[in-house]
Every structure is written in C-alpha cells, then in structure tokens.
Amino acid sequence: MRLSLFYTLAITSALTVLPFTESKAEEPPAPENANLLNLSLQQLSDVEVTSVSKKAEKASQAAAAIYVITQEDIRRSGLQSVPELLRMVPGLQVAQSGAHNWAITSRGFDSQFSNKLLVLIDGRTVYTPVFSGVYWDIQNVMLEDIERIEVIRGPGATLWGANAVNGVINIITKSAKDTQGTLITAATGNQERVSTAGRYGGTQGDLAYRTYAEYFNDKQEHTVSNPISGATQGMSGKDDWQNGQGGFRLDWGKTENEQATLQGDAYEGQEDALRFLPVTAAVNPTFFNIVNDTDLVSGMNVLGRWKHQLKAGSDITLQAYYDDVNRQAYATDNISLGPPTSLHTQTFDVDFQHNLTLDAHNEVTWGLGYRRITSGFGNSFYASFTPENFYENLFSGFLQDKMALVPDKLFMTFGTKLEHNDFSGFEYEPSIRLTWTPTDKQTVWAAVSRAVRAQTQSDTSLNLTLATIPTPPPFNIFSPSTVIAELGSSQTTSEDLTAYELGYRIQPMDNLSLDFTAFVNEYSHLASEATGAPSLAFDPIMGTYVFAPEISQNLNRGETHGFEAAATWEATKHIKISGGYTLYYENLHIVGSSLVTATGTAPKNQVNIRSYVDLPCNLQWDTMFYYVDRLPGTNDGFGDTMAIPAYGRLDMRVGWTPLQGVDLSLIGQNLLQSQHQEFSPFIFQTPEEISRSVLGKATVRF
Amino acid sequence: MRKLLGILAIVVVTCLCAFTPASADDESDRSIKEYQVKAAFLYNFIKFVTWPGDHALEQTHAANICIVGSNPFGKALNVFRAASSAQLALNVKLNVPDSAIPSCHILFISRSEEDRAASLLALANSHPLLTVSEIKGFADNGGIIEMVKTEQSIGLFSKDKINLRINLRRAEAEGLRIDAQLLEIAAEVIK
C-alpha cells in the first residue's frame, strides 16, 4: 500500500510539470546586441545578465537536496530561534520537547540524542562530540544577522565528514560589511518572555566590523502530574530560562577572492527544570525523587578564516577555530543526590581547502583537516564516563572532482572523504553524483553515497542511568533496588549508511520554482542495546543496588525511504507562497532499541504552507501553517511507549513599518490549540506541552 | 526499494523528453553581458528623458553620451553608432575631460572615478545633464540614475538583473523631465 502511494506521488509530481512547457511568450527574445534596443523598458529590466568571468556554481544546479532559509523567511516567519526556523525545511523533523529542548533530525531517527545531522555555524561544528548531537539551547545566533541557512538533506559526508549522515545544516551569518549601523530589537509576550538585542557595525578602510549583544529571559511553567498519585497540586514545572550572549565579527577584503574573517562569541545562561530523578528505595520508596534542577551553561568560541587566490581558477581557504562548552546540572532544593553532572568540552580545529580548475573539464577540490577534542566530565550516579577526562584526535582529508562529461550539460562529481578517528580507525566516505541540466531552468541529479556515523564517547564508555525499579524475585535478596542503565562498550562500531538519491528541480515559469527529491537509505550496524549480566554495585548515597546494564552494540539495521518536495510561487508582486511536503517510511529490523534507534520516532507525513503578503501602508501579513503526523514510537522517559498524536500548527504575523528604520510586529504562534505535545520528554524530564503564544517585537535601525 | 528510484527516474526522464523544447534560445540567450544591457538602458534614457532649453534634442539633433573614467562597456557601445541617424546623431565620447562635461546630455561616471564622484557631481549639477553610474549609493549622493545589479531568486533558481534607482528630485532640480514609463520600471524612485 505504501509503495503505490510512493509511485503515485512520483508520477503525480512528474505530471504536474508537463503542462508547464516553456512558452515562447515568456522567454526573452533571442538576443543579438542590436535586438536589445528593441526591448521595452520592462523587458530590459527583466533580462538575465551574466558577468564576464564569474564561474560560480549555481545553486539550482547542485547535485544534492538543498533548501535555503532566507533572511526574508527568518524575518517574516515571526520565529525567534534557529530550531523553530528548521520546521519549514522538507525532510527535517523538528519537535519541541520542552521549554528549552528540541529533538531535531533529518530523514528519521529523531531523539534527544539525534546524531545523524551535522550542524555548523559559519564553518564551526556545533555538535557535541560526546554524543554527536546538538545542544540547541546554546545555539543562540542573533537572527537579524543570519544571511541564510543552507540545509542539505542526505549524506554530505564526502565534503563534511562523519556525522553528516543524513544532513548538514549550515548557518551562515552576514558579512560585517552588510551589518553596518545600529540595530536594536526588543520583544515581549504572553509567555513572560523578554528579549532584547543590539548590534553596531562600522568600517575602517577595507575592514568592516560589528559587535553585538543579546539577552532573553523566559519565565514559564508547565503542569506536571505526580506519576504515582496523579496529583498536580504543588508540582511546579518551572521552566525559567535566561541567556546572555555577545560577540564580534571582522571582515577584511575588497575582492571576492581575497578575504579574511575573524569572529567570536561568548555566552552564559541558566535553565531551570523539574526532574523526576530515579533513585533507589533506600533514598525514596517511590523509586524517584522530584527535584528542582538548574542547569548552568557557558561557553565561548573564536574562528578565523582566510581565502586567497593563487592564480586564476585556483584558490585556497584556511580556517581555524576554538570552541569551549560548559554545562553543569545541580539541584536547587536541598536534596543532594551526589556531585553535579558537569561537562566541559574544548575543541580545536584546523581546516585547509584548495579549489582548482584543472582543465576545461575538471574542477578539483581537496582538503585536509585536524581536530582535537578535550572533554572533562563530572561523573555522578546518573551519568559517568570511564575515564572521566579524555581527548580525541581526528584527522581527515577529502578529494573531489567535478567532471564535465558534456560541457555545460552533464556533470559527474565523484570523491571521497578519508578520516581517522580514535575509536574506529580509518573511515572512508565516497560519493558519486550526476547532474544533468537540459536547460538552464531544469536540473536532474542523482547520487549514490556512503556515510558513517562514527562512534563517540557515549558509545564506548558512557554509563547512563535510565530507571530504577524494584528488583524482581529471587534477586531481591541482594538488594531491593535495581538500576537499569545504558552502558557503552568498546565493542561498538560506527553506523553505516548507503544512500541512493534522485532529484529534480524546475523553474517552469518566471515566478514558480519546484524541487523534488526521493531517497532510499540502507543502514547497517545501527546502534542497538542488549541486556547484559546484572551485578551488584554500590553508591554512597544510593546504597547497594543491582546493576542491570543494557549494553551498547550495533546489531540494528534497516531501510528508510521517502520523498521531499518544495515549491515557491510569487503569485503577484505582493504575494509570495511557499510550501513543503515530506513523506517518510521506515522498515527497520530492530534487535534491541537504543536511545536513538527506535521505530516510529519520525512522522510519516509533514506539510507546511507559508504566505507572505505585502499590504498598502507598509503593512505585512504573514501566515504559516504546519502539519506533523503522529509519532507512534516515542517513549515516555520511563521506558514505556508514548505515542504523540498528529498536530497542526498555525502561526501568524502582522508587521508594520511606520517610519523608515522602525519595524513593529505582532506575532501569534501555535494559534490552533491552547496546548499540544510534540515529543516525548528528554531523559528525567517531565512531559510538557507547547502552548499558544503571542508576542510583540520592535526593531529600530539607524 | 531500488525499483522505486528506477521508476521515478524513468518517469522524470520521460516527462523531460516530452517537453524539453528543441528551441534555439536555450543556450545562447544565457550569456547576455551585463554591459550590453546597461548600454541599452543608456539608449532608452535618450528616448525617455527630456532636456530643457538649448539642450533639447529637437534643437541639437545630437545626443552626447559621455563616459568619464575607464570604459566598462567595451564593444557594447557599438549599438549607438548603428542606431545613429540624421535626425538624431548619437555621439559617444570616451575619457571626457572635465571641461567638456557641460556639452554632454548623459554623463556616465565610471567606478574608477568613485573617489572623485562628489566633485564631478558638483561640476555636473550646475548643468542640465543626466548623471548615470554604477557606483553604490550614487542616487543618494547627488546622482540621478544608479544602475544596480540585483539578484532575483525563486527557490534555488536565481538570475541577475539590472535595476534602476532614480533620484527624481535631483532630476527636476536640473530641469530634466523623466517620462512616467521610465519611473514606473525603476526599482526605487527618490522624491
């Protein structure tokens, strides 16, 4: 049944473009130099021009499933954070699990620990090497300074390396040259959230600079019911979240081929959370304690990049960055359950890349990289690493050739990344892609690639407490409490993916663009867990307990396939409509579910439709609708399956520019329901629903 | 599952073959050079701008197009020779010295003169002539028409186009009248 739906969709999408045969009336007339003088003014201002020597690859001819979130999308969606902006991208699954928790993935396997998606900000990797996932709560880029967000679904491993298994998200901020002058924003809303940001940019000769600071303070609460008594009284799910961040960026360079950048950020924040922490019977006969936790986060980063042209058709880029991340969780009430869990990760990375036009038919790109990660962990009963402090060296190199099989029409890009990491040794990730551009307005591409999700510290040496239960007889003679924990193992290997992709992109009319992608992913060695032999353990606070490990392995495998579509239509000069559709099927062979590998954690259908309408008197009216299908397989944090029903979301924004440089917006989010749930709670968290919210924002530029 | 991709591939190729036109304008029309279009705009300015008094084209029977600084147009300027007629001679003058500026109808200030654009405008603005340039911000700083290359994108497809920013206030101060049709297609009109 699902196969025929798949065929139907494929054929329907192909048929929708048949009527759009290129009509001669819409094309500019065949040009000769003299004929341009015969064009009307309107036609002349519509003519496409090419610069004399620019040979940059057109985005429309890329051999990958790319989606770009533009600054216009950012401004008019009314969304206030990067994770929220990702909802509009077909192929991505975004679910907000709590006030500051998001589970985001590409093409399946959504989890708190989603690990098959690489995220970069201006070339700096922002995933934590501890579990190769992203802490979204600390990626607070100032939205007004984002140039665009490029999302590539599918393996980008050849260029980006391990962990770019199902996608790469590249958040690109504006050059300092484009952020000149002063900008101040302030926003507040019914969720008692106050946020403000300020940025100043200037130039000094060839050097452009900017500096910014932003701060927000969220005071939220959600209702929590006691899992034993069901009572909600006296249970305050406090979700207070405040964060301050500041930074700078310097850009130097007059020409596109000779540029240097230096940028850095620093932040500090605090997040409150009500946690249900599993404890032994010795501490609490109900086997859990309700604890008010506060997480402290802080960090800084600095990045430098230099691009230099050696000669025509040959340029190099050198980049280095340092990133420092600190997280600490501790109990704010007087219950002390041991030392706080803390994490301190320092990353140092150096990358070199050379683009070379070898001859008329070959464009070669190659590069080398080195990364050193140092991680210090503060072990506690809940999470511990053995050893506590560790470091990792990652060496990588890649080589890629784009060959013109038929000049300007048919290209083949093949290449590979070769990496060496301390866990699995050498990994190679090859890819071969074909691009066919029968006309400038159509691209057909196909790709076969291999990608690898390399093991991390979590896979090899993490001991993570999942639950405490009464020991079943006859073992209860040893201890009344059993602790079930996930235990890493040195026997784990990296996960493997072979991906087959096919895409078609067309601009059938001047004001309409359509993009389709289909993929089939075959996975092997997916993370799995197997019950291990129990043993007796002791903790100074928890006492003696039976330790029942779930040992990490890589015995799961399976296949997923899907279809993604995106469309943009400029109906009139004042109305723009965009939409996306995602279809996802999985056929997994699960021997033992792990925290990431489980069925039913990604929705089968997702739709989004957005309209941006310009009204007279400098008014803007923007509407965004999203639909997310149900999640049958998420679990509730206590090990039981908790299906999340399908939901629809409606956001609306009204914007007004009363004076030049002053923008006011009124934004409503989640308008359809007063509350709805999107995902299961993160570990030890309580289930939380996302509420309807309204906020007002003012932006002043001068 | 590979069958699915196979089927999709066949469908896509079939519909592409069905309507990929064999028309000639697929390849060559993509390489219209920037300066051919800008030259065509200069030609149109002659049609859609009215000069006052002695400078009126009906009186002079010639339109003088002067370029100050390096010439980015190259051979694109040949259109003027071809379009020249007895009723209206189109004279293109390169490397015009400052003293010859008052005789120009259209003064194109090249990017090479960016540093002295302000002084050139001060000289030009005491005469009724149309100042045109590609210099960023030209229309805000005393120039009349600024030619901007803008990117129009839809989805991942994008094309560069030439748009105009016209400072109408400056034009009227010079006594020049700009036809409504030209103002209509301008991306921005500064009043």
Task: Report on this structure.
The complex is a heterodimer of chains A (702) and B (191). Chain A has 6 helices and 39 strands. With 702 residues, chain A is mainly beta. The longest helix of chain A has 16 residues, at 2-17. Chain A starts with a helix and ends with a strand. Chain B is an alpha/beta fold and 191 residues long. Chain B has a single domain, classed as Response regulator (Rossmann fold), CATH 3.40.50.2300. Helices cover 33% and strands 25% of the residues of chain B. In chain B, strand 4, helix 5 (117-124) and strand 5 (130-133) form a beta-alpha-beta unit. Residues 18-30 of chain B have low confidence and may be disordered. Classes of the chains: A mainly beta (702), B alpha/beta (191). The interface between A and B is large, with 68 and 59 residues.
Shape of chain A: globular
Largest sheet of chain B: 7 strands, mixed
Number of strands of chain B: 9
CATH topology of chain A: Maltoporin, Chain A
Coarse structural class of chain B: alpha/beta
* Span between termini of chain A: 59 Å
DSSP helical segment count of chain B: 7
Number of contiguous helices of chain A: 6
Task: Write down the Rg of chain B.
Answer: 22 Å
Instruction: Give the overall shape of chain B, derived from the CA principal axes.
Output: globular
Whole-angstrom Rg of chain A: 26 Å
Concise overview:
The complex is a heterodimer of chains A (about 700) and B (about 190). Chain A is mainly β.
Write the layout of secondary structure elements.
The complex is a heterodimer of chains A (702) and B (191).
Chain A: H1 2-17, H2 41-44, E1 65-70, H3 71-77, H4 82-85, E2 92-98, E3 101-106, E4 118-121, E5 124-125, E6 127-128, E7 133-134, E8 146-153, H5 157-160, E9 167-173, E10 181-189, E11 193-204, E12 207-218, E13 221-223, E14 236-238, E15 241-252, E16 259-278, E17 288-311, E18 314-331, E19 341-359, E20 362-378, E21 383-385, E22 389-406, E23 410-421, E24 425-439, E25 442-453, H6 457-461, E26 462-470, E27 481-487, E28 495-509, E29 512-531, E30 535-539, E31 543-572, E32 575-589, E33 605-615, E34 619-628, E35 647-659, E36 662-669, E37 675-676, E38 690-691, E39 693-701
Parallel strand pairs in A: 4-9, 27-31
Antiparallel strand pairs in A: 1-8, 2-3, 4-5, 6-7, 8-9, 10-11, 10-39, 11-12, 12-15, 13-14, 15-16, 16-17, 17-18, 18-19, 19-20, 20-22, 21-26, 22-23, 23-24, 24-25, 25-28, 26-27, 28-29, 29-31, 30-31, 31-32, 32-33, 33-34, 34-35, 35-36, 36-39, 37-38
Chain B: H1 2-19, H2 34-48, E1 49-50, H3 57-60, E2 62-68, H4 78-83, E3 89-93, E4 106-109, H5 117-124, E5 130-133, E6 145-154, E7 157-167, H6 168-173, E8 177-178, H7 180-185, E9 188-190
Parallel strand pairs in B: 2-3, 2-4, 4-5, 5-6, 7-9
Antiparallel strand pairs in B: 1-8, 6-7
